[in-house]
TrEMBL record:
InterPro entries: CdaR-like_regulators, CdaR_GGDEF, PucR_C-HTH_dom, PucR_C-HTH_sf. It comes from Winogradskya consettensis. Residues 171-279 form the CdaR GGDEF-like domain. The lineage of its organism: Bacteria, Bacillati, Actinomycetota, Actinomycetes, Micromonosporales. This is PucR family transcriptional regulator. Belongs to the CdaR family. Gene3D superfamilies: PucR C-terminal helix-turn-helix domain. Residues 329-386 form the PucR C-terminal helix-turn-helix domain.
Length: 394
């Protein structure tokens, strides 16, 4: 005995069959409308326009499945994100979310314009309402797809930035630095300097987001990475690195913030990074240091901590300059420091007039940029003289 066909209980059953038969025509009409109304769509390469056609066809098929499963009823099921899986990833990178919304709108407009032709008698209003609900679900699906893409891209960018900072700290070649910076869209705006400070803790993405928000307010380019309990930040375009670091200070945790010297480009930023890291390690020896503080202001502490670059700078720039200047400047400093900073006592020790001592101390400031009358500068000068005499041949 022949079996009778099962009754069709799906809503809009008659309409559904007509929509199924017209699926290809609707997709083609949608793409044709896109070419007519969207100038940017016409400018897409042929392969990307073909990918949009695949997405349109997948969308029409999804509408059919949605109608078949009872999507017009209350408690509508969420549209599957597989609608957008038909397109290659390159299309998501080429088309923005705003443009995707425009494509969806054109497709829905085409479907709505065909309601009278697609709907069975008496089902026109129901089909129009179903298309309206379906368009909402598709829009939410597109938003989810782009949100996940943004999260993935953000995680990848964070990883790339960490690799770039690692390359800087290791002193990798300029080609490595340039390729990784280019992948991040880094605009090599001079000067470039490196800032090191304590991380506030918590999720690295949140920490770096706070840093980037502060950088946008300061109008500078930054690349940052969290390394253990430290944040290492490369700043570009900061004409006054110390002042800019002050604007970024809120993104750092407690403790010192050390700013490396400015260099002309990212290729030379390793020098700034080394100075900033050395200063960060030595900063606890100067509890009253300003925040942020320049790495060059920590030369004495860095030298005591074993930083060879700080020793070289003190020996060459301070001690060497005094030696080359002559005029009894080194002897005057010895007497001045030996007298506990009492000018008259230093003059008696040298058998000269106190005004002569004053003149020589002024010359020391002119030659080195360090004033013997300032306690902090006096400390740096004494350290430079000690290092210079311990290693005079270098």
């Amino acid at each position: 005995m022949a079996r009778k066909p099962a009754p069709t209980n799906a809503p809009l059953a008659a309409t559904l069959r007509k929509v199924e038969r017209s699926a290809g025509t609707l997709a083609s009409a949608s793409v044709a409308r896109m070419e007519e109304t969207l100038p940017w769509f016409r400018a897409l390469p042929a392969d990307q326009r073909s990918s949009v056609m695949l997405v349109a066809q997948a969308g029409i098929r999804s509408l059919v499945e949605w109608l078949r499963s009872g999507g017009t009823a209350a408690g509508t099921q969420e549209i599957s994100d597989e609608v957008f899986a038909a397109a290659p990833r390159t299309l998501a990178r080429a088309i923005t979310l705003t443009q995707t919304v425009q494509l969806i709108k054109v497709t829905i407009d085409v479907a709505e314009s065909e309601v009278q032709a697609l709907a069975a008698d008496g089902e026109e209003d129901a089909l129009a309402m179903a298309i309206l609900k379906f368009s909402r679900e598709i829009a939410f699906s597109a938003a989810r797809v782009y949100a996940r893409a943004a999260e993935t891209r953000g995680a990848w960018d964070t990883r790339l930035q960490a690799l770039l900072v690692d390359a800087l700290l290791r002193g990798d070649s300029s080609d490595v630095l340039a390729s990784r910076a280019a992948a991040l869209g880094w605009a090599d705006a001079p000067p470039v300097s490196v800032v090191v400070g304590r991380s506030p803790g918590g999720d690295h993405t949140v920490v770096l987001h706070s840093l980037y928000r502060a950088a946008r307010r300061a109008r500078v380019e930054v690349i940052g990475g969290v390394h253990g309990d430290r944040i290492v930040v490369v700043m570009g375009g900061a004409t006054d690195p110390l002042a800019t670091a002050t604007q970024l200070a809120g993104a750092f945790g407690d403790g010192p913030i050390v700013v490396g010297p400015a260099v002309p480009s990212l290729d030379q930023a390793t020098e700034s990074a080394r100075a900033a890291l050395a200063g960060f390690r030595a900063a606890p020896a100067w509890p009253a240091a300003p925040k942020p503080v320049a790495a060059d202001d920590l030369l004495p502490e860095r030298a005591l901590a074993g930083d060879p670059e700080a020793r070289r700078a003190l020996r060459h720039d301070a001690y060497g300059s005094l030696s080359r200047a002559g005029g009894g400047l080194l002897e005057t400093l010895d007497a001045f420091f030996g007298a506990g900073g009492v000018l008259e006592s230093a003059a008696r020790e040298l058998y000269v007039h106190p005004n002569t001592v004053r003149y020589r101390l002024k010359r020391v400031t002119e030659v080195t940029g360090l004033s013997p009358l300032d306690g902090r500068h006096a400390f740096a000068l004494r350290m430079a003289m000690t290092i210079g005499r311990l290693d005079p041949a270098t």
